[in-house]
Write a structure and sequence with these properties.
Blueprint lengths: L8 H21 L2 H34 L3 E3 L4 E3 L4
Antiparallel strand pairs: 1-2
Length: 82
């Protein structure tokens, strides 16, 4: 199985709360190295979220260019036949 951004989305949703908690703790205890690691985790989360949204948009555009409709809930192209 290939590793993709969409397979990392649950991991991304796990990184954000942990990074925020570590940032809060680091600011309280004034640990500069932990602040930097927490901010790096938040930036990584933001980049992965933007990348996953871009890939979803790209798939949406590809469906429209094929003349199909896009189902947001299933993430698939729906081809209507006449």
């Amino acid at each position: 199985m290939a590793l993709s951004v969409t397979s990392l989305l649950p991991f991304t949703l796990l990184i954000a709360p942990i990074s925020l908690f570590c940032l809060m703790l680091a600011l309280k205890k004034r640990k500069v190295w932990l602040i930097r690691i927490s901010l790096l985790g938040l930036v990584l989360t933001a980049v992965l979220l933007v990348l996953s949204q871009y890939l979803d948009y790209k798939h949406f555009v590809d469906c429209l260019l094929q003349g199909a409709d896009y189902s947001a809930f299933s993430g698939d192209c729906i081809q209507f036949t006449n």
